[in-house]
Amino acid sequence: xxxxxxxxxQIIAAVEGEQTQATPxxxxxxxxxxxxxxxxxxxxxxxxxxxQARHEGASWTDIGAALGVTRQAAQxxxxxxxxxxxxAAGSRAALPYSTRATATLSAARDLAVSHHHxxxxxxxxxxxxLDNRGGGAVGAVKASGVRVADVRRxxxxxxxxxxxxxxxxxxxxxxxxxxxxxVAVREAxxxxxxxxxxxxxxxxxxxxxxxxxGQALAEAGLDYSALRQEVGRQAAQGAERPAAKRxxxxx
Length: 251
Description:
Elements: H1 8-18, H2 24-55, H3 60-67, H4 71-78, H5 89-92, H6 99-114, H7 122-131, H8 136-143, H9 148-158, H10 175-190, H11 198-206, H12 212-219, H13 224-236
């Protein structure tokens, strides 16, 4: 189907089809949610092709011209800025984070603090994903034929402590992490996910061979295409399973 084949009537019909028993105000709310998702999809479509153009050697001047803006405006829109607060990451995203993905962000921050690092970078995210044993990321690594221990070893080999010094207890996200989380949103949208899971963050980290995390994953033998196929299979089966609830024994 061509992009120009989409029209307003199709979108209206889709909202009405999902809200057959809804009140008029409930349909307004459903339309708002649909518009939010469509806007996110539109933004990430452009970002996808900007990334592709950059990988193929296009300059920011050329990209700005294609978008009808200046080089500086294009960079401000698509180059991730470091210093984003970990707690604020969820509010920036077009989709909510899963419970496990949220826990991963907190664990990555703790790892950065323990290593006296000023930023939460992509290696912190990767190691935190691997420690979340029940998450979709770990399942995807195993199903791709790669040992989690091998990925952890290659990632830790690249992670160095900066030595004792006074650091904040809440280091912000580094540039590579901000970019990875932005791409994770895109991956979730492409796989029709309702939320950003650990598997989407892993896929985002593996998609960029220029980063420390991307290189660690490749060195451990993780093939991006195989990983993406596995994450797609997970999405078809419902992605991450909820953690088992513990029952308290009565005395």
